[in-house]
Amino acid sequence: MKTVRRLIYTEVLSAVAFVTVAFLALFFFIDFIDELEKVGRNGYPAGTAVLYCLLQLPGRLYELVPIAVLIGTIYSMARLAQSSEFTVLRTSGLGPVSALGLLVQLALAFAAFTFVVGDYIAPVSDRHAEVVRAKARGNSSYGHTGAWLKDRLETPDGERSYSIQLTAATSDGELRDVRIYEFDPNGRLVSSVRAPSGHIEPGPLWRLQQARVSRWRPSAAPERVQGELEVIEQGPVTYEWRSSLSREVVAAAVQSPSQMSAVDLYRYANHLAGNEQSAQRYEIQFWRKALYPLACLVMVALALPFAYLHSRSGGISLKVFGGIMLGISFVLLNNVANHIGLLQDWTPWIAASVPSAVYLVLSLLAFNWLVRNR
Questions:
Q1: Among 53, 83, 106, 186, which has the minimal tally of Cβ within 10 Å of its Cβ?
Q2: From CA 374, how far away is CA 351, in angstroms rounded?
Q3: Is residue 258 part of a domain?
Q4: Interhelix angle for 46-55 vs 2-36, to 10°?
Q5: Domain count, the chain
Q6: Is residue 271 part of a domain?
């Protein structure tokens, strides 16, 4: 069995590695051509464009691994079948269950690799890519154009709710253009804070620089109408605000969900749910991120039936083309299911798992039919 495992694993790994490198080279070329349009604007050099495209490759790798596993496994299995090596293995005692078990073990290794790339390497690389491009263009921040967050705290004056607006934030806790609006339990505005910059320190403690604070309180002046509010202005000062919003949650708010790790998605979805905000988009993305590595298992299950097709059923090129079409259809169904789940308010884990479940069932049915009839 060790010899059989070594033969199959060597064939599959070499084919998957070749397909992965080819796809990465193609996407790097496409991304670089797209960046060339921006070269020369605001002092953006070509070298930085190349570095930006290189830093995006881990994210591309994360997206491509399952498709590369499918195409590479189909190619290697079809080649073994065409050269009759797989037939020899079958007559030597390699049953369908054993063959599937060997590929599942390899698929688990691919799934672990995909998880590590998607949760630890790609998010960091994407953030560095955005920082590199932003600095080259003379910007001090990166990310989306802004975000709104909510918080609820117990203060000496009672419970207070906060609406926070910011233009940009980094994973290091740096903030830009911060607005904090404080409301009492009746929804009345109590105070507002405006600051051009700030930093989130452990605690978490928000330290805002050059902040201007406005407070509203009932007026005690006899010449004013009863119930009229008096505004007290203060600043610019260094304003400190204790909050439950950590730098990880704030940084996640200005990032695209597709660039967040599963841990960040889970943390931010819980924050939104705790503040009675819609979190379904992030919950679906979390389950998609958590289940995506398992797509490698589905891909090898789809590829194995090609080993039981007779060589006269079509050449290797035709089978590889069929694998490419399967991979494209899987990606398409995966994206469509997520959008439909968001629109139709599906349970997040169901919306994320439907494509993999459908293709896994189809692959097992095809595998069972081929084993019985071929």
A1: 186
A2: 35
A3: no
A4: 150
A5: 2
A6: no
